[in-house]
Design brief:
Four copies of one chain form a homotetramer.
Chain A lengths: L1 E6 L4 H12 L3 E7 L6 E2 H4 L10 E3 L3 H7 L2 E4 L6 H10 L3 E4 L9 H8 L6 H6 L1 E2 L2 H10 L2 E3 L3 H15 L3 E12 L14 H4 L4 E2 L8 H12 L6 E6 L6 E9 L5 H13 L1 H8 L6 E3 L8 H4 L5 E8 L2 E8 L3 H15 L10
Helix pairs in contact in A: 1-14, 7-14, 8-10, 11-12
Chain lengths: ~350, ~350, ~350, ~350
Amino acid sequence: MINVGIVGATGYAGEELIGILIRHPKVRITNLSAKIVKPRVFSEIFPKFKNTLDLVCAEPDIKKIISQCELVFLALPHTASMKIAPSLLNAGKKVIDLSADYRLKDVKTYEKFYKTKQKDRVYLKEAIYGLPELYREKIKKARLIANPGCYPTAAILALAPAIAFGLVDLSQIIIDAKSGVSGAGRKAAEELIFSEINEDFKAYKVNTHQHMPEINQELAKLANKLINVTFVPHLLPLNRGILETIYVKTQRHLPAGRQSRHKEARRQGLSSLYKKFYEKEPFVRIKDEGDFPTLKEVVGTNFCDIGIKDYGNIIIIIVAIDNLLKGAAGQAVQNMNIMYEFPEYSGLT
Amino acid sequence: MINVGIVGATGYAGEELIGILIRHPKVRITNLSAKIVKPRVFSEIFPKFKNTLDLVCAEPDIKKIISQCELVFLALPHTASMKIAPSLLNAGKKVIDLSADYRLKDVKTYEKFYKTKQKDRVYLKEAIYGLPELYREKIKKARLIANPGCYPTAAILALAPAIAFGLVDLSQIIIDAKSGVSGAGRKAAEELIFSEINEDFKAYKVNTHQHMPEINQELAKLANKLINVTFVPHLLPLNRGILETIYVKTQRHLPAGRQSRHKEARRQGLSSLYKKFYEKEPFVRIKDEGDFPTLKEVVGTNFCDIGIKDYGNIIIIIVAIDNLLKGAAGQAVQNMNIMYEFPEYSGLT
Amino acid sequence: MINVGIVGATGYAGEELIGILIRHPKVRITNLSAKIVKPRVFSEIFPKFKNTLDLVCAEPDIKKIISQCELVFLALPHTASMKIAPSLLNAGKKVIDLSADYRLKDVKTYEKFYKTKQKDRVYLKEAIYGLPELYREKIKKARLIANPGCYPTAAILALAPAIAFGLVDLSQIIIDAKSGVSGAGRKAAEELIFSEINEDFKAYKVNTHQHMPEINQELAKLANKLINVTFVPHLLPLNRGILETIYVKTQRHLPAGRQSRHKEARRQGLSSLYKKFYEKEPFVRIKDEGDFPTLKEVVGTNFCDIGIKDYGNIIIIIVAIDNLLKGAAGQAVQNMNIMYEFPEYSGLT
Amino acid sequence: MINVGIVGATGYAGEELIGILIRHPKVRITNLSAKIVKPRVFSEIFPKFKNTLDLVCAEPDIKKIISQCELVFLALPHTASMKIAPSLLNAGKKVIDLSADYRLKDVKTYEKFYKTKQKDRVYLKEAIYGLPELYREKIKKARLIANPGCYPTAAILALAPAIAFGLVDLSQIIIDAKSGVSGAGRKAAEELIFSEINEDFKAYKVNTHQHMPEINQELAKLANKLINVTFVPHLLPLNRGILETIYVKTQRHLPAGRQSRHKEARRQGLSSLYKKFYEKEPFVRIKDEGDFPTLKEVVGTNFCDIGIKDYGNIIIIIVAIDNLLKGAAGQAVQNMNIMYEFPEYSGLT
């Protein structure tokens, strides 16, 4: 049984995290905090938690958090996390940060895309990118987890096997991404009000979104080569879920050593290849050849579902996750489960 | 051909009004203004108007409006209208005000429900409540129209015939109202963002909504008696439309003079009675006995559709309008058409 | 650990039931059946269950069900249940029927509202109406549960205390009900397709809905008097949830014995009264005076939330449930928990 | 003034067509027909047309249509049109067919993708593909118009200038298309019911959709070369509108004669190029460099809005139309206006 705190409890990811942790058999929530005018019983803010969680939620009090918790989730906007995380880590606490502050190892890239200074280069070096399917062993020993972004989680899981097997022309990876509105966070903004978004659909931040360098960073590590994906996010008029349709070209000119492996891969079928790659993963499901996932199948779950098919020289990969679960709070709990050697699916079924 | 101005062009009602006036054969839009940081071509703010309206929209400049327009629509939040209307009226202009500022004849009631001072008692006296079905003759000669609220338009049209015929127990009128989100206006507010409203439904301002005294005022005039309706508005997760389900008790104890008329009314059927009452109205449609309107049938039109049926001692009336048309901009144009003796449906079909 | 079967596994209630039972610590699902062309692995029909439930779903085979299960849930359309239940009961199995077949004790009323013969009068007599808040003791010993309808669950729980305390004029109870679309079941019908319902809102079966006699039957038992509610259901453009706004008149002329109790009740406030009435109930939550529930607070939970306030001679009660949980599958599991003396909230948190 | 008939009046495209034609100053609707059990007044089926259209709608009676109309719109499913069109054309009538029956010049391709025989090869040869921006002169003299599909209208208009200017690597054109649900037609089908589609998003007919060969056919004519686009349509949970995000590679190896033209094009900027290409078109609007269209800007209009930007070696084009207007009924009326030399925007503003 561990004592955990959540900073940023009133955002969508924080609310979701609390919903999971309440049901988690090994966790006791001991501190809730958020940007809030005055302290309030949490179930007064979110009446759905009445009779299940009656803690008070107040402005974060670092000393109190340190004395009450051994693990702290930061469900904050970027820039806010790097102000709080160092004190917690210095006091020997573990931190899972859901913001972008510790995700990008290259400080210049962070500063360009987030338009703010990276202020904690010490812990930035130590932070582990919390994608269990790629970094499980490092997560086990980590003190600070940079929980991946929602779009990158889907994109990286969808592309990792194809890149690992050298199937893909790395010069041209096109990611057409669509996200539900909760991805924009709970904030008053005219462009987010219901009548603006309902019955509308649009692209935004075309090829300039701040999740693009995160995808590039991780794919580059897999490919051992610089990567520049083309990335166009769109806003869906629905609450939750991300679906990405990814178009890659098959690799034509292979180094001699890879040709046979590549041929073999395509002979088996890409679905089989993906199934093997992820066979031990509790939260990745690969569709049979020709089948593709829908949002509905993953919303409310921590699963990442992937369909892949080869159409001559183009491979189409479709991937779906719940942006608040596998794309945020669910993955954060999965990381906690790994760090504390709890069953990886605890609280997530 | 008349020159008109719209103050408050960027709100939902203003935008709708402009869409109608562009198509109106007798109207030239000569001035657009709104609360806006710096002047912008209107079709840059609303790209859908590109190639159809290319006026600049700026902060309201009263002198310019006076020199360019003979009729001005005020599509403003309450309190803003009564600051602007007097100057326009003093300069000999006609004004159709879509806010609540000139609707309530009783100043105390206005101040109680709108929590602000009524500052223009002079023109308040003169203002005509712009519900054409009840006040067409007065509208013809009016200089200042108080365009009715959306909920009251539906409620009053639904109840007027039943009250006029003395069919209703006036001590108990229950209005269960449901409105689309555009009724709340275009404003940044956390409770209006998509993820809060989508897949939710709730009552708000239960029996305390500011449209309640407006309904009471108008029904009282019809009944020649104080009226206190029970009024519960709800928020529907859709863009536009109001549907109200109204429950009244049939009047039992009638004054001798009214009994035969009342009996006759119920013998004919309430639908027939309503059809007769509204037979010359271009924008009220009465359903056959047992049929009730749906939102879809009226959204995008200026119609008010009404179904009514007698269930023993309870009469159920269901009424539907488009809140932005018959409930705001459409009715404003209908009023303009009457004031200028244009065909009443001009621009509205 | 008990073995259960679900007949009608592919409808909305069946699907929901399975989602709950998978997580239930005391239940093993041993048989799934439905109207289905040929047997299929359930997770092929509903890919979201992949890796969590891999049973085959086939046409119901009564012998197999009897040999594999001790409790059977019937999540079937009405008329289908009463064809299957008797064989199961004769074989000593327990049955929780989610259809309407065993709810109405008066056969004529059933036949009038459901337009079909009631064919099993023997077990009809024995069936217990499965509303735990009113009939927990009987449910404990029941073999056959008639699981309540969704609208009646909300209406009865909202009205029971007020009627029990004699606060209500029984001659006039008005229920304005609004339901999400899943209440209509999973069936191909032109009026249910997305483009017909999205952005629309309407009343249907005005004062003729088949759930009306069910509400009347149960309220009459509480009041010891015939009851005829006025009941207007409406269709909301959202997936799940029921919200009912109920208008009752306060009882004026009380028998001498009841006057003081009544006064006392109103002095304390209706919310306090309701809180006391339901204080031991795990799934009923009463709002503080002046607060009313929203759909969002109950969707995804088995809670029934109630707000109540006295407005002079009218009392307004607003009640919200998830129609697939407390209004169907959740309540069915709650009944099972009571029958088997499992903790009442098992599987439901 | 011309007399027109609509066959298939009760589908979404037919309903939309009627809404436009009612307002058209040069058109009288003289015959309405559809697959229908018994003749009904049209405004009884669609109450929103009450008081504006009171014709009877019956099964199509070819003789009557011939005697009452000079132009007939066929708003039918494919295969139904080619059974009716020949009799009308033989009788000297003009026909605008909204189905796919006369769109694909290659019979084998039609039969492969529509899985049915092409039965009218005579008129197939004569049919003009009704995309005014490309074929206006031919439309003027046409007797039979094959009105384009919704996805192809958007895709072809978005790609035509880039292909005409030789900017594009023709071996790789990726169209990621998203459509509202009305595109699927008004038909009872379990996968189209509200609760299935609401809050879901998915790809369907991945790279196998029947609109793909239509796009290929038209782009090939422009390019003078075989084209095979990659085409993935997705279903949006909203009523109307199509948005396509198109990814093309810039052409590298140009024939000598084209190089300077190509350079010049890229120097000017692609938006300017597109603006020039479409400068006389009343219904195509090009965004400024870096701006992209949203559904909301075109829904309810006949406009096709296009944004285009060059990102190194990838060009991204985003195009939006209302699938029922520019993608069906609006374009059909635009074609009629051209055929009869009415102002091209008549009825469409």
